[in-house]
Amino acid sequence: MTITITAFERSPDGGRGLARDTRVRWALEEVGQPYEVRLVSFRAMKEPAHLALHPFGQIPTYEEGDLALFETGAIVFHIAQRHAGLLPDDANARARAITWMFAAVNTVEPPILELGTARLLEGDKPWHDERLPLVEDRVRNRLKQLSARLGNADWLDGAFSAGDLMMVSVLLRLKSSGILDEYPNLAAYLARGETRPTYKRAFAAQLAVNTGRPPTG
Ligand code: GTB
């Protein structure tokens, strides 16, 4: 059955891979499933046809036969459940990998998003300079805890899993901030994720959309 996802017709990041279709593309690459992409404009995202797929008028969505999903956590979980390669067979290890998926989107991503909002949208507010260090500290606190748990391991719990895919995807948002470099094991963890051929293919595919040039390599 054909898998179709939606992505920005033109991502505001110009193809840096920060829009959330990249994590879904990556999951599909990891499990070797081909997929099609329907590009949507910001206007189309708020129209009834797209709202029927995504109640909040966002990307990405996932369609497969008569199944339609939204929320990247749920989409990646669905892909990982349906296809081998992203979740361990052992029941306890599988439950732990799923826990890391939730930790990525519920515990680590929120302060990172808050930092993005503070930097990009609140620069002109009179309280910006006072608030920014507080928001940065919340991010540092989570990174410190994550760094302590990762230690010298390559991945969060044994072999690479959907938990790592989600966590690396969340950390990618910090790449240009420099904060991650304060935690060398997390910077190396991110780099390990980015060097996976599956990630590279996902990144190249979204970049091609945003540059209008076909993916190379
Ligand atoms: N919780 C949802 C999920 O995980 O699926 C969040 C989905 C979401 O935030 N989608 C964003 C969107 O559709 C795109 S990814 N926004 C349009 C809207 O809400 O109207 C977030 C995003 C957007 C742009 C950049 N960027 O340019 O750097 C990075 C990330």
Write a short abstract of this structure.
The chain has helices at about 20-30, 40-45, 50, 70-80, 90-120, 130-150, 160-170, 185-195, 195-210, and strands at about 5-10, 35-40, 60-65, 65-70.
Q: What can be said about the biggest beta sheet?
A: 4 strands, mixed
Any ligands, ions or cofactors bound here, and which?
S-(P-nitrobenzyl)glutathione
> Radius of gyration from the CA trace?
17 Å
Number of strands: 4
> Order of strands across the biggest sheet?
2-1-3-4
Give the helix proportion (percent range).
Answer: 55-70%
Which structural class should the secondary elements be placed in? alpha+beta
**What is the CATH C-level name of the largest domain?**
Mainly Alpha
Write the layout of secondary structure elements.
Layout: E1 3-8, H1 21-30, E2 36-40, H2 42-45, H3 48-51, E3 61-64, E4 67-70, H4 72-82, H5 91-121, H6 128-150, H7 162-172, H8 184-194, H9 197-211
Parallel strand pairs: 1-2
Antiparallel strand pairs: 1-3, 3-4
Helix pairs in contact: 1-4, 1-7, 1-9, 5-6, 5-7, 7-8
Bound molecules: S-(P-nitrobenzyl)glutathione (GTB).
Residues 11-13, 18-20, 45, 57-59, 71-72 line the site of S-(P-nitrobenzyl)glutathione (GTB).
What labels describe this entry?
217 residues; alpha+beta; Glutaredoxin; Glutathione S-transferase Yfyf (Class Pi), Chain A, domain 2; 2 domains; 4-stranded mixed β-sheet; 4 strands; globular; binds S-(P-nitrobenzyl)glutathione
